[in-house]
Amino acid sequence: MKVLKFGGSSVQTAERIKNVIEIIREEKSARAVVCSALGGITDQLIQTGQLAANQNPIYLSIWSEIQDRHLVLIEELIHESEKEEIIQAIKTKLLELENVLRGVFLLREFNARASDYVSSFGERLSCYIIAAACRERGIQAEYLDTRKVIITNEDYGVAQVNFSLSNENIQKYFLEHPNLQIITGFIASTPKGITSTLGRGGSDYTASIFAAALMAEELEIWTDVDGVMTADPRKVSKAFSIERLSYEEAMELSHFGAKVIYGPTMAPVLQKDIPIRIRNTFNPAFPGTLVSADSNGTKRIVKGITSVGKVAMVNVWGGGMVGISGVSARLFGALAREKVNVILISQASSEHSICFAIKPEDAQRAKEALEQEFDRELSEGSIYRVEVTENLCIIAAVGENMHHSSGVAAKFFTALGKNGINIRGIAQGSSELNISVVIQQEDEVKALRTVHQAFFLSDIKTIHLFVVGVGLIGGTFLKQLSEQQQYLLDEYKLEVKVIGLSNSKKQLFMPEGITLKYWQEHLSEALESADIDQFIWQMTQLNLINSVFIDNTASAKIAHVYEKILQRSISIITPNKIASSSSQELYQTLKKTAKKHNVLYLYETNVGASLPVLSTLKDLIDSGDRILKIEAILSGTLSYIFNTFDGKTPFSQVVRKAKELGYTEPDPREDLNGSDVGRKILILARECGYTLEFEEVEIKAFLPENCMQAASVDDFFKELSKSDDYFKEMHRQVAAEGKVLRYIARFENHKAEISLQAVDQNHPFYIMQGSDNILAFTSLRYPERPLVIKGSGAGAEVTAAGVFADLMRVANYL
Ligand code: ADP
Ligand code: ASP
Ligand code: MG
């Protein structure tokens, strides 16, 4: 014999009830079927009571909504002889409800006892209709109002069951009523016959009481998800269902927020060793979760991650508490008297404090109770204060195998730490069935996803990208990413999603990820105009795990918000040189902030595009080397110009060609004036550990003054062509000595200098091609022949590839 239970979402509409009736029909061994109120009705009933007590007449319109919903249901479910009788019976119940509410309105009081009475109508209405709908479909079913059989004490709201009386009543009732019973969940009555309830979500418990009293072979709880899942699927979309759980694990999950099963449900069946199966009305073929004495069937250390969305922490501080026995007994005694339920006691704090989590609505009462209890100690000063912190939540990892394995806590805390989630308190149950942490409420979903990923999806890692700047470099990066996405998933189990995208005009957010093939279309259709502050606000509001910000612009404004981004524990990747080459102070602040918040700030492409320059330097320095001298050709543009200038083609034409090839900035003077190279050598020096400001870099100009002063780019080219002879002569002289012209940056003895030089064929920079960059590092380890890095140092493809390489570094770090 089985007991079945259908929750509010399974009996929400006529369609769903028909579906439930089919499940009942299929389950030949069902004798008792417990049902909840129609989904949402209990909340509405309580709301009517509260409104009435506030003398708000709106309670009547909610009452009539409730009436309509039930009458429509009868209309859709019942067509035969019983229909009129059922309508009358339902109307009578609703009239009774209306009278009660009028009483509440007049009295202006809606206490727990009245609330239980008002909310009892939900199950009384739903089950009455469902029983009739069963009969109409040929199932011999009767309605059972559990107030006749389940007896509780007078703790209205969450009343305690008198098992000996209730079991006897149930057994007797079933002997006298052989038909299938459609039973009201949640409600009961006191010995005096006053309506009480078993607590919100209590229909599960009702079903368990019946299963135990009737010695059922199994209790089936039918809900709207595939059983108990590794996390609440509404918050963690990647949650999956758990095959088996022990009673204790289910209790623990429920205690820490898994609403899918009401905590006390496990107790009655546990004593009789009756298994519970949690199944999905929307997916009846799925076996769901089996809860029994034996949790085996999976070797997972952690079974599920849960959260209690809203808690307050109470901290009792005082030097006089150390060693004084009885303080905690008095403390928890005072709370018990006030019926304050303690969710968690934290071990994290020092011996000078006791710290525990409770529901926020209990916080004030708890504070006052403790202040009263410890009145003397507070005035003497042995207890300093009772402090309440609100807007917190609890995240818990639950699993029986946890005490057999080390490192669970480390994994838990590391996952949170890497996503910048601050832990306010830690607790580990003495049973070692769970580890729980108290964190800021706003981080709840992010923390759930982070910890869920760490324990269940460690094989697939998801990175969320926010990309600003989709010009030449940004656009190429997105193209490369789009081509590699599948490969990264297949080869590295790395899922890279672009969530936010912005050009200079518009911005776009798609929390599920933007399809990269169509990013241009999506962005051009976006409605939001670009605004970097808004962009950052939305990025932080989304609060996604493993978030990475990529700045592909050359904008100073964006560079100045990096610190804010890093503070939110979001890594940054950028080819934008502005931040790293602004003041030494900003450079250091950004590095420190990244470190403090456990994220990476990467800008490999600031020097030599995708050549491994900064990462090589870092490896050298981390392993104890010291850089003594740097010599480098750092501008792809200038490299191209001097490698191509052969003295025959006029110099101005070579520059024009470079511009046409896209090797220069729109105004080529920005390359030719040397400041870009200046920024690069500055960054190199800083990476080597030296302190240097941009103003200290000596840049020797090689362009005649008239070119630099020209008002427009066109004028510049006109002026430059006037200097063609000057450059031709320069080339002739140098060539006569067997040398070539090279624009070289040098850092030595704490001095940075950039100048146009003539080098002969013995110099490592003599042979250069295209837009190549070359860097020679002389160090303690490479004192005579320097370490040389050479290769293509400009162009969108290689720069975007460098950004991509940084992304892979972040992926390895996270
Ligand atoms: P019912 O109306 O059937 O009693 P509930 O709404 O009380 O259903 O419980 C089911 C809901 O519990 C699910 O829709 C889901 O959002 C939530 N839930 C929270 N944690 C979990 C979890 N770990 N596994 C499954 N569901 C969960
Ligand atoms: N109807 C009640 C509630 O919403 C009981 C239940 O559904 O389990 O809390
Ligand atoms: Mg429920």
How would you describe what is shown here?
The longest helix has 25 residues, at 83-107. The two termini are 51 Å apart. Strands 3-4-2-1-7-9-10-8 form an eight-stranded mixed beta sheet, with helices on both faces. It has a seven-stranded mixed beta sheet with strand order 20-19-18-17-21-22-23, with helices on both faces. The chain has 814 residues and is an alpha/beta fold. The chain has 30 helices and 29 strands. The chain binds adenosine-5'-diphosphate (ADP), aspartic acid and magnesium ion. Adenosine-5'-diphosphate binds at residues 7-10, 36, 201, 223-225, 228-229, 231-234, 258-260, 304, 306. Aspartic acid binds next to helix 7.
Total number of beta strands: 29
Calculate the terminal CA-CA distance, rounded to whole Å.
Answer: 51 Å
Beta-strand percentage range: 15-25%
Largest sheet: 8 strands, mixed
Low-pLDDT segments, ≥5 res: none
Tell me the helix content: 40-55%
Small molecules bound = adenosine-5'-diphosphate, aspartic acid, magnesium ion
Strand arrangement in the largest pleated sheet: 3-4-2-1-7-9-10-8
Assign the structural class, choosing from mainly alpha, mainly beta, alpha/beta, alpha+beta, or little secondary structure: alpha/beta
Radius of gyration using CA atoms only: 36 Å
Total helical segments:
30
What characteristic shape results from the CA principal axes? elongated
* Mean pLDDT across residues: 91
